[in-house]
Amino acid sequence: xxxxxxxxxxxxxxxxxxxxxxxxxxxxxxxxxxxxxxxxxxxxxxxxxxxxxxxxxxxxxxxxxxxxxxxxxxxxxxxxxxxxxxxxxxxxxxxxxxxxxxxxxxxxxxxxxxxxxxxxxxxxxxxxxxxxxxxxxxxxxxxxxxxxxxxxxxxxxxxxxxxxxxxxxxxxxxxxxxxxxxxxxxxxxxxxxxxxxxxxxxxxxxxxxxxxxxxxxxxxxxxxxxxxxxxxxxxxxxxxxxxxxxxxxxxxxxxxxxxxxxxxxxxxxxxxxxxxxxxxxxxxxxxxxxxxxxxxxxxxxxxxxxxxxxxxxxxxxxxxxxxxxxxxxxxxxxxxxxxxxxxxxxxxxxxxxxxxxxxxxxxxxxxxxxxxxxxxxxxxxxxxxxxxxxxxxxxxxxxxxxxxxxxxxxxxxxxxxxxx
Length: 420
Description:
The chain is built from eight helices and 19 strands. The chain is of the alpha/beta class. Strands 1, 2, 9, 10, 11, 12, 13 and 14 form an eight-stranded mixed sheet that branches. A six-stranded mixed sheet has the order 8-7-6-3-15-16. Helix 4 (298-303) links the parallel strand 17 and strand 18. The two termini are 43 Å apart.
């Protein structure tokens, strides 16, 4: 079947914004909020994962920072939510936060791009950001199709272009990718994209299918290009930036930097040239600390003196045998009584190593060991179980299921090698 050509969507009206300081335009560039992100099995309150609560709190506090900056424009460049259908808790957080922004800055325009996490799984699905935008005045959602808008800020015409995340199948041919061009009749031209830039492809584990073709963003007349998807703040060029995530929300949070936040962008329009640009990274407040402790052996770990901040997520990397697990967990619970959660992992060379002495493939595309991914899977299944299903497993702990699964995985790998 012949594919229909992609059509740019013109957002339905031209906004006129009149705020203070007519000589400058202020933009708040956020991305990768990931409301409804989950990690571990602790709950902040019944039915709400602790890390889900943390990320929601961080977003609300970031919006307070944005209000203090008093922007004319706020753009969330994709992945406001961690999934297409977020929980009621996360929807309430999003609505409450953006209503606070709207109440404090009634004339500020808000734009939300669809990301690869919160876009619907098919072209006919309804996106959560569309539902959200209907609840917030002067808020536009750009879920799947490219779109553009024109606003006038203190008599300065501003052209905005948006390229939300697309399904990988639509990126196979560069000709299928959306191409925006600056509107030279406007004083300011802004482009926002959710996807993988060619410069960060070597730094991420994402599929190259999400790579955005350079023809989409290399036009030299963009005053500012804001990206979403990569979780670290990164300057790609003099006028091109990834904002980074506001909290630790990747599949490998232990590898992320502590610097989380958003970009406060100030543009000074000129008569015949690109805007003068000032970009400032604003750090998110109170991001929960994540600490990695490494030791050569269980005995070495028990002898060492180590401290972690209260409420930290802790990952202990140490070689251990199955018969040492209970002793190890008891030691950690006594030494780290105020840690939110402690995860035990074997070093890279030891991961998923059972009594057979063999080591199967150790890492997955998300950067975590198979042990850690298996634990996440089991924890999710435990959370989804009904009370009657949990009774069937009475007397069998989550840790036992994880360890038995790893033993079976190592045994399967050994059998496959023997057959080969």
